[in-house]
Amino acid sequence: MIRRSVLLGTGSALPVRAVSNAELAQTVETSDEWIVERTGIRNRHIAGEGETTASLATGAARAALDMAGLSPQDIDLIILATATPDQTFPASATLVQAALGIDDCVAFDVAAVCSGFLYAVTVADSMIRSGAAQRALVIGSETFSRILDWEDRTTCVLFGDGAGAIVLGAEESTDGKRGILSSKLHADGRHNQLLYVDGGPSTTQTVGKLRMKGQEVFRHAVVNLASVLTEVMELAGLAPTEIDWLIPHQANARILDATARKLKLSPDKVVMTVDRHANTSAASVPLALDLATRDGRIQPGDLLVLEAMGGGFTWGACVLRV
Ligand SMILES: CC(C)(COP(=O)(O)OP(=O)(O)OC[C@H]1O[C@@H](n2cnc3c(N)ncnc32)[C@H](O)[C@@H]1OP(=O)(O)O)[C@@H](O)C(=O)NCCC(=O)NCCS
User: Fold this and answer.
1) What is the average pLDDT value for the chain, to the nearest integer?
2) Domain tally, the chain
3) For residues 302 and 243, what is the distance between their CA atoms, to the nearest angstrom?
């Protein structure tokens, strides 16, 4: 028998307040035309009072559990990918656990910025396949609005807040055709200064603000995303032509278009949500996955590739048959 992690449900949660480019242009020296042309972003959600990474994560987790038809007590593992936790410690995953009323489970955060969700999925999948977990909540949740420098128009227009979650469950079958078929993670810490936060408990004792050299990140993103996608498809023994849906990290519509072109993938196989959510870091892949599941684009049997790249740099991808 082959033991795999299969997708049982998806969910998401967004802050109540949506902010259009035009609204942003009232306080930041920018324009709707510039943002749309350079990034494809039209809208983002910004967390208000009482909305935090953990509260959004809890909302997304509840929706994913509902879709899976499971109760919180069925979960024995929570991994939350975030770069904007509610507290430096304990892990925001434990806040989600408490909010869901789960008496005992494994709960921890993963910090790999925009590729955090891929890191979290890969760790959860390893734990499920090894028998260390049966049913996992894997969540990406962020409130980047709270670490943005709102005086820096080159970064503050690009990000938004939100959360996405999935439930993964162990399934044994003879053919192993369903579930996570392959995954691959990478990191290259030499690129720290291209995308980072200029503070932290052990250096400045502050939270810090996001800093980015956008053009250089852009170049690395296209190369790394195309190569890791090729890698996971080879690991799964499948050809890129077999992909039904590519669900990439949503940083910039031009990065998504360039990656699809490089891989000769039709743009209508790429799920695009950057226009409505902007870059929500670790939340962007599960938010896009949830949207395309709920609007009926993703159907049972479809082959999905999830992929992301972010600060560090870190990047990764996984192949999943639903
Ligand atoms: C950030 C990004 C959109 C900038 O686009 P770009 O085409 O590289 O633009 P540039 O940085 O060359 O800036 C072009 C001009 O627009 C200006 N500009 C920058 N931000 C602006 C804004 N929000 N509104 C208006 N003008 C802006 C710049 O000052 C510059 O003006 P100048 O030519 O007079 O100096 C793009 O580099 C990008 O998306 N990079 C990847 C970022 C990313 O995805 N990061 C997350 C990865 S997880």
Assistant:
1) 97
2) 2
3) 8
